[in-house]
Design goal:
- The protein has 381 residues and is of the alpha+beta class.
- Helix content is 28%, strand content 25%.
- Strands 7-3-4-6-1-8 form a six-stranded antiparallel β-sheet, with no helix packed on it. Strands 9-10-11 form a three-stranded mixed β-sheet, covered by helices on one side.
Length: 381
Amino acid sequence: MSLVEFQLPEELRDVSADEFCRQMLARIPREIDTTEGSFAFDMLKPPALLAAELVQFWLVLGLQNAFHMWATGTWLDACAADCGLSRRAATYAYGNVHVTADPFLTFAKGFVFSVPSENGEPALDFETLEAATVPESGQLTVRVKASISGLSGNVRADTITIMKTPVDNVYLITNDATSGGTEIESDDSLRARIDDYYAGRQASFVGNKKDYIRWAKMVDGVGYAQCIPLYDGANSVKLVISDANGQPATQEILDAVATFIFGENHDDLNRLAPIGVAKWAVEAPIMTAVNYSLDVKISSDLTLETVEENIRAKLNAFYRTLTDGDNRFGTLRYVKVSEQILNTAGVEDFKHLRVNGGLSNVEFAADELPITGEIELTRYG
C-alpha cells in the first residue's frame, strides 16, 4: 500500500476523445464541411480516440510507474533499484525424508523423492541435498529440497512417500513437514521497504538496531525480523527471523541471513555488520502457543470443525500484522482478538472468550512469536 493515493493530474481530468476531435476540426478551413458524419469528421474521429487513449491511459500509467508509490511489477523493481533494494525472490521448502531400506543402500545427491500425484495434480518432487547411505540400522534420514520454489513445497508430514525412480529394497518412505517455501515478494511489501528507506527511519547504515532489521529483510524468504542488541554482553547481537509465511525460518534461511550480514568472517569485504561485533546469533523465534476457548454461534451450513479451522487461519494471519515501531511483536491484545474472531467466516456471534484462560492481553518476549494452540469451541444458538 502506498503512502499517498494517486490523483489524476488536473491537466488531464477534462481530456476526452470528443475534445481532441473538436480541436482538430477547429483547425480545418471553414469552407470544408466538419459536421458529424462528414468526411472530415469521420477521418479525424479515430485518431482522436487513439489520442485520448494515449493521454487517459498510457500517459497516466507512465506517470504512476515513475514513482514507487504507485508503480507495480517490473516498474516497481526499477524504483527499488534506485535505492539499492531488490524484490525478494521465492524460496524453496526444505525438510527431512525418512527411509527404511536394506543397509548400505546408497542414494546419490539429487535423488528425487515425491509426493504422489493426486486429483489430477502433478507429483511434487524433492531432491536430496547430499549423497546418503543407509546405515546398519536400516533407518536413514536425509535432508531434501523442493524442486520448485514457492508455497507448494510446504507439505504435511507423511506425504512424501514415493521415489521418482524406483529402487529395490526400499520398504518405507515418509517425511517430517517441510517448510521455508515462500512466494516472491509482493508489490506491497517491496513498496513498504522503499517507503522506509526514503522516510529515513533506517538510514544510518552504521549497524544500529533498525539497520540489522533492514538488512535481514533484504534476504530471500525473510518475513519478520527482530534485533536483540547486547544479548550476550558487549559487541554481541542476535537476530530472530521468521519466514515470509510467519513460520520459524528454516536453517537455510537463517544461514543466508548470517552470511549476508556477518559475512564468512571478519575479513569478508561484503560483510555489512560493523567489524566490532564479535559475537552474533541468527535464530528462528520461539513459537509460543496461545490457547482460546469460547462459545460460538455459527452459520447453519458449516460445521464446528470448519469454523475452528477458519478461526485458526484468521488468527495466524493476524499475528503477522502486529509488530510495533521497533519491529517487535510485544503484545497480543484481547480486544483485537475479539475483532478477528467476529470477522471470521462462519462466525455469527460469540461469547465467553478466554485467551490463555483469561480476559487480559498476552505479552511476548523479543525472541517469541505467537501461534494458535488449542481452540475449544462450544456451539450455541
